[in-house]
Structures are given as structure tokens and as C-alpha cells.
Specification:
Blueprint lengths: L2 H7 L5 E2 L2 H7 L5 E6 L8 H15 L3 E6 L21 H18 L9 E4 L1 H4 L4 H7 L6 H6 L1 H4 L8 H4 L1 H16 L1 E7 L3 H15 L4 E5 L12 E2 L2 E2 L9 H9 L3 H11 L4 H13 L5 H15 L1 H14 L9 H7 L5 E4 L5 H7 L6 H9 L3 E3 L2 E2 L15 E6 L3 E7 L1
Parallel strand pairs: 2-3, 2-5, 3-4, 5-6, 9-13
Antiparallel strand pairs: 1-6, 7-8, 10-11, 10-12, 12-13
Helix pairs in contact: 10-11, 12-15, 12-16, 13-14, 13-15, 15-16, 18-19
């Protein structure tokens, strides 16, 4: 299948310049790129959508470029923003650029014959001289056309600095550089990048008399209309120190039934016929949440690797009442980051443990919970008031649940 057809069937194409002509071009191998500005020390789920799409092109045999915006990150993209971005220091931007470069190297193939290319636009933008840039590049831009771009137009009421106004020229210049250096003829990005991308295709046409193309992906929203990619704690990051893998996995497993099939198409490499089977399963057996489990497993594997994906899957299963016996010792260590953890002596009573772990407010309440068989230890309902190492997994760990959702991990000393 032509990759354009696959993207269309997945609902991934939002806008495209001359899609019929691009589809013909893509019958041969082409070079394309996407840019990633270092606006934080980690990429997030919005970036991941672009990365996965780049990877689709790479798997289809095309040459892909991941462009780190070490130069444009010093300026700030007004696209999608209602107010001016805070300018970060060059040291901070370069440090974030290195971290993003390291992340990108995990998600694209940089080792095979069709290896991806990693570029940083700081390498050419910092060499530019203002007068030469204005004469050679700026003269190809109409102020009237720039003001009509959505990224600029939406800011005219609240105000936009010349710094951010000039961002469009820099991104267009990036495209020109990559066209000349790598014969890169396609740029992809989020829907808010349409104005910047078409500025690049126009510059290539005006400067070189050549045809280049642009393609944008849709803005992802949840079925309730809210923005995708955030949880109560904020953005979902790809850095496991900023969003731990368990919370990353839970974000996906908690996907609404109305959204899960769309996200399987966007974020996984599952064939469309397999996704259709999951769609049918969702209709007939929604309580099994097979589609959500598949989505969570595959995306977590892609971002954090198979070992971590299996680990958080085991932990998730255990915390929801099954498979405690399958937990490995390292899983309990990881669990200390997820649920309240308390260290106790092995001669403490169950009543003491419930109070110390805040699963009961008093010994009296603890006795009531125990009597009502509301306390579960390592997957089994317990009324045994005596706790010792023989009760613990690995002679050390007790996973205690009170009711359905109140957990504590107890470590015996």
C-alpha cells in the first residue's frame, strides 16, 4: 500500500500540498523531515505522534530526517500559542537539545542501511549574518502573506514580537537548507505548523524554482473535547524521570472507548485489519478492554522498551487484584514510586500496619476492616492479625489493599 493511502485510512493526514502529485512522487523513495524544538527537557505525546509518523515513512523505505531546533528554540514559535514564549538562555536550549537528540535516537532507526539522519538547525542558523539573511531570504516573504498565516493572525490582538514574527522565516530557511543538502522534498508537522511549512515550500519554489511538499497531522482531542496528552499531573512526557512508565502505561489503559481505536491507528504500527478486529472486540466485549490493553502495551514498548512494558503490565495487573504471585522483586522496587510505602518490623500486627500505612485512621477502624474482610494481602483476603516474613513475598514485601482502590506496599525489616 502507498504510505499516503495508509495515512489516509488511519485518519492521519489533516492538510497536504498537492496530495495527488505527492502520492506519485512517493512511489519512488523520497527524503522528508520533521522538526522538534527544545521547549522543554523532554519530548511529549504530541511529539510522539510526529515521531511515529516519521517511523512509518522510514519503514516504507523513505529517508527521514529528525531536525532538532537548537537555533529556532532560541527564538520561539508563536504557532498554537496565545502569548509570547519565555526566551531561554542559550545554555539551557543547548542542554535540552542534547536530551531531545538522545530521545530521538531511541525512536528512529539510525543503524540500518536506510538509517535516519539527525540534524540541528543551530549549526547553520548561528552562522547567518543579519544583512545577508534579510537580502537573500527575507526578500522572498510578503508581509501581507505572513500576516495572513494563522500562527500570526491569531496573535495580532494580543500582540506578537518581531522575534516570534520572524520564526516563520527561520523554519522556511531550515527547509531550504535540508532540500539543498539532502534533497528533502517533504516536511511533516502538527496542524498548527501549516503556515510555517507552506512558507518553506514557497521559499524553495521562489529561490530554487523547485517543488516541495508539506503535510500536517490532525490535532488530537479526546471525545469530550479536551486536549489529548495531558493528565491531572500535566503533560505526559517521554522521559521516564518526568512521567514514570507506570503512569505512562496507565494513561493509555484508561483511554475512553470512544478514543481508543483512533489512537491505535495514530500511535501503533498494528495493521488496519488487526485494529478492525479490536474494534469488533470492543463492541462485543467492552469490559475486557482488550483494545486499551493492546494500545498501552504497544506504545509503552515503543517508548520504554519491552522489559519495562512487561514490568508495568505486571504491576498494573497486581494492583487491580490479580497476578501478585507473578511480580518480580524489581517490580516491588518500582512499586515504591507508585503507591504509598511503609517500612515496618516483622512483629507488627496487621492493625498496626493498616494504621502506619494510612489504610486505617485508628486501630479500632483497622479491626473493623479486618472483621469485614475488607483487607487483601498479596492478592488474598485476610483476617489473620499476625504478620511475619512467611506471609511476605520474597520474605520482604506485602501488597495490602483495603477496599478496591486503597493500596500500600509494606516492606518488612
Amino acid at each position: 500500500m502507498n504510505i499516503i493511502d495508509d495515512l489516509n485510512q488511519r485518519g492521519i493526514i489533516y492538510q497536504c500540498t498537492n496530495i495527488d502529485e505527492l502520492k506519485k512522487k512517493i512511489q519512488d523513495k523520497i527524503c522528508l523531515y520533521a522538526g522538534f524544538d527544545p521547549t522543554a527537557e523532554s519530548l511529549h505525546l504530541g511529539n510522539l505522534f510526529i515521531i511515529v509518523t516519521l517511523r512509518r515513512f522510514q519503514l516504507a523505505g523513505h529517508k527521514v530526517i529528525a531536525l532538532v531546533g537548537g537555533g529556532t528554540g532560541l527564538i520561539g514559535d508563536p504557532s498554537g500559542k496565545s502569548e509570547e514564549r519565555q526566551l531561554n538562555t542559550e545554555e539551557v536550549v543547548q542542554m535540552w537539545s542534547e536530551k531531545i537528540k538522545t530521545q530521538l535516537q531511541r525512536f528512529l532507526d539510525f543503524d540500518s542501511e536506510n538509517k535516519a539522519i539527525l540534524e540541528n538547525n543551530y549549526n547553520w542558523l548561528q552562522k547567518e549574518k543579519l544583512i545577508s539573511f534579510l537580502r537573500d531570504i527575507g526578500k522572498h516573504f510578503s508581509i501581507n502573506e505572513m500576516l495572513d498565516k494563522e500562527s500570526v493572525k491569531s496573535r495580532l490582538q494580543t500582540g506578537i514580537s518581531y522575534t516570534e514574527f520572524s520564526y516563520m522565516l527561520l523554519q522556511a530557511y531550515d527547509y531550504l537548507n535540508l532540500y539543498q543538502k539532502h534533497n528533502c522534498i517533504l516536511q511533516i508537522g502538527g496542524s498548527d505548523q501549516w503556515g510555517n511549512i507552506t512558507a518553506g515550500t514557497d521559499l524553495i519554489r521562489k529561490k530554487l524554482g523547485k517543488q516541495a511538499y508539506g503535510l500536517t497531522l490532525p490535532l488530537i482531542t479526546k471525545s469530550d473535547g479536551t486536549k489529548f496528552g495531558k493528565s491531572e499531573g500535566g503533560a505526559i512526557w517521554l522521559d521516564k524521570e518526568k512521567t514514570i512508565p507506570y503512569h505512562f502505561y496507565q494513561f493509555w489503559i484508561n483511554t475512553d472507548d470512544k478514543d481508543v481505536i483512533k489512537l491505535l491507528k495514530y500511535y501503533t504500527f498494528l495493521p488496519l485489519e488487526e485494529i478492525e478486529k479490536l474494534k469488533n472486540e470492543l463492541k462485543t466485549n467492552p469490559e475486557k478492554r482488550t483494545a486499551q490493553k493492546t494500545l498501552a502495551k504497544l506504545v509503552t514498548e515503543y517508548v520504554h522498551g519491552k522489559d519495562i512494558a512487561r514490568q508495568v503490565e505486571r504491576i498494573s495487573t497486581a494492583l487491580f487484584g490479580e497476578g501478585v504471585e507473578n511480580l518480580k522483586e524489581k517490580d516491588f522496587v518500582e512499586m515504591t514510586k507508585i503507591i504509598p510505602t511503609v517500612n515496618i518490623q516483622d512483629d507488627d500486627s496487621l492493625e498496626d500496619i493498616l494504621v502506619k500505612s494510612n489504610l486505617a485512621s485508628s486501630k479500632k477502624q483497622a479491626r473493623e476492616f479486618i472483621a469485614n474482610r475488607a483487607v487483601n494481602i498479596n492478592g488474598k483476603t485476610s483476617s489473620d492479625k499476625t504478620i511475619d516474613k512467611s506471609t511476605a513475598i520474597y520474605n520482604k514485601y506485602l501488597l495490602i489493599r483495603r477496599g478496591k482502590k486503597n493500596y500500600a506496599l509494606v516492606i518488612l525489616k
